[in-house]
Fold this protein.
Amino acid sequence: MSDPIIVANGLSRRFGDTLAVAELTLEVNRGEVFGFLGHNGAGKTTTVRLLNGVLTPSAGQARVLGLDPMADGPALRRQTGVLTESPSLDERLSARLNLSLYADLYGVPKAEVKARVDELLATFELAERADDRVGEFSKGMKQRLALARTVVHQPALLFLDEPTAALDPVAARQVHEMILHSARAGRTVFMNTHNLVEAQRLCDRVAVMEHGRLVAVGAPHDLARRLVRNLTVEFELTPDDTAAALQALHGAPGIVSANQRNGVIVVSGAEREAVPELISRLVQAGVRIYQVTPQEPTLEDVYFALHSDAEVKP
Ligand SMILES: Nc1ncnc2c1ncn2[C@@H]1O[C@H](COP(=O)(O)OP(=O)(O)O)[C@@H](O)[C@H]1O
Ligand SMILES: [Mg+2]
């Protein structure tokens, strides 16, 4: 049964001539990690600001945790944690103090602050540097601290705006683990990202936004099945046959490209129906095939299927 924690109905926001969010109708269920995907300017940040009651909609309504974000903003924000695109930490202070001050600000009972801060420092792998000035931290550590700060008041719902955008892959992976940790602790996560790998890894469902409009919503796997008609297929061959295979595939109908990668021919853009024809071309050219593996479509494929007017990059 769905149990929506966020309901948006025709939610819109205009800035001058720009319709940043256009009639967004969407439900996010309690307990899910929901990815809000789109390239720069798609309206992701604006949506989070609308849902969190820091921006007035031009039209439409939203209910978040049963509250109207505009009318009940302060009550709502006591139950949400928000990681903005560039979270500001106090770099002169220690990690511990950054968290304690936030705990005070959010009205965490005085008697509980120390234990809660200690626990967060441990969970977010900052305990060893707890008393060092944040100014000396790496980007990844700062982001982990910013994330710890968003849950200091134990919110039911987290809004994370591009949580790994500025991080290297190792730091990003640590942040992913911490997002999943929050999700396992029962929090609903609404996460903006333009990183498809991240979305695929973390999200139960995703919405794809384009120029303020919702263009697709669903589980990554379902979206891939529904929207991606062209497969990527790998052919494992005798390495000596590679050149003959590429030649045989050259100009085959319905494929976008055929490339060689470590002795494996990777054919992309093949329609399912074209695969037997490709195999038969290879066999006729005398190529010995050991294995044919169609790749599961990914969210990236979904993205490209949706943005097939090629000038748009993910
Ligand atoms: N405060 C603002 N004033 C004017 N235009 C804005 C403002 N905030 C966002 N926009 C515009 O709204 C559109 C969506 O922006 P945004 O929500 O920040 O997208 P995203 O987070 O997906 O990159 C963009 O065209 C952006 O320039
Ligand atoms: Mg943004």
In short: The chain is about 35% helix and 30% strand. The pocket of adenosine-5'-diphosphate (ligand 1) is lined by residues 15, 18, 20, 38, 40-46 (CB under 6 Å).
